[in-house]
Amino acid sequence: xxxxxxxxxxxxxxxxxxxxxxxxxxxxxxxxxxxxxxxxxxxxxxxxxxxxxxxxxxxxxxxxxxxxxxxxxxxxxxxxxxxxxxxxxxxxxxxxxxxxxxxxxxxxxxxxxxxxxxxxxxxxxxxxxxxxxxxxxxxxxxxxxxxxxxxxxxxxxxxxxxxxxxxxxxxxxxxxxxxxxxxxxxxxxxxxxxxxxxxxxxxxxxxxxxxxxxxxxxxxxxxxxxxxxxxxxxxxxxxxxxxxxxxxxxxxxxxxxxxxxxxxxxxxxxxxxxxxxxxxxxxxxxxxxxxxxxxxxxxxxxxxxxxxxxxxxxxxxxxxxxxxxxxxxxxxxxxxxxxxxxxxxxxxxxxxxxxxxxxxxxxxxxxxxxxxxxxxxxxxxxxxxxxxxxxxxxxxxxxxxxxxxxxxxxxxxxxxxxxxxxxxxxxxxxxxxxxxxxxxxxxxxxxxxxxxxxxxxxxxxxxxxxxxxxxxxxxxxxxxxxxxxxxxxxxxxxxxxxxxxxxxxxxxxxxxxxxxxxxxxxxxxxxxxxxxxxxxxxxxxxxxxxxxxxxxxxxxxxxxxxxxxxxxxxxxxxxxxxxxxxxxxx
Length: 586
Prior knowledge:
The chain is built from 17 helices and 22 strands. By secondary structure, the protein is of the alpha+beta class.
């Protein structure tokens, strides 16, 4: 028997028991006549004590120990003279009577502590060591608890967990696919699925009216903190439902997870907001509603006064930063430089102070009288002590820049508390978005999203105004999931393909299997997919999803631990009828 107890299990009630533990050496403190060793497993840490009364073999073995050695010990549970209230096992220690080294360890390349001295790349190279640290261990435990909570809830709601294939056909619409050559079909390729979208719709046609899986998905896209080339979705679909049915079930699931995993309760339904309202009020279709500072359109008030920047603008928007009239010029300059960064793209920032003494000062005093500025303040609900921050330009870029400015202000002012959760549903997205470069419409979600029934007549006369029967689940400014009611009528699906510029032949080539399936009786259906990695990082209070994935890729899409991707041997390429011609390295 390697162990009778784990290293986080023993308590004061176990005094006098003979026990056996196994784990990794966390720390050694040699005090001469007495040596203390902390032994660790994923359950916790227990202190061992070795002194002059210990067997000689134990004392000798203890002298040779190093950090991260794997050991097995036997001994008796004693009460600690100096208790440690920060440890679950801090009231006891083990007087060691037997010690065996199961595996020696080299000196780790970084310290296995909660706060490590290793950088990101080093820790990713030795990810199996990084996973021993408490922050990552806790992240893996949280991920497990969320996955089990999802399965329990959906099983209770009558859902079946059904797996769908990883080797599928390519779908050029949307993000780039990862492709896999087929040895048995020379010159032909599988693609890894970006989502199980068409398969879950086929399951609805097959009569499996409540489906889910926690599934890997793949997208070949540029990476950042909340993206990985392979990621996990909670993928779900339901038949014989309308939007309210889907939202009801999955709002229930989210409330269940918040309650069971975090102990957070929500009263009443989550708020709803249309896409148009979210854009107007927050400049984003995933608004953070933990704090105010909503956007205000002051275009009509600010134009016509001879300030060319405003007069030529399509949109002028203002944020009322309450209580911030005391911002220094340095702080205002920092915010100006922030919004002028290339990834935000604003050309500048105008400010108006409403000082406590009643004075109004602005960076555009030359063009506007105090009464003009006061009118802006009234539009934005400004009072003495408040600060207006204004961006102008083309409509959507200005709204986006104001959104980023609002979030930055919220961060600087401490308004984005990660222990506070404000979920909402964003609904009624545009069905289509126009691309000037290609001169055609693209589906904002995917080609199988149903338009709202009341907007179907507009598909011929004004397709850009058609709203989708779609919904996103947003928490604290992060899109956690999204879905829609699907098109189940073949004629309506044909109209959708036509709007997207597909010929009948092109549609049949890419989606013929689904089009054919719909000929055999497709029920009304809809679903949703939640980003499981993002959900984990939200519950864990982290910005990045990386720590909640056991073996993630770096920002270049590389696994630096196993050094992948890597070139194939010539014999492998020949077997797959491939040749490799990478660009020359600079």
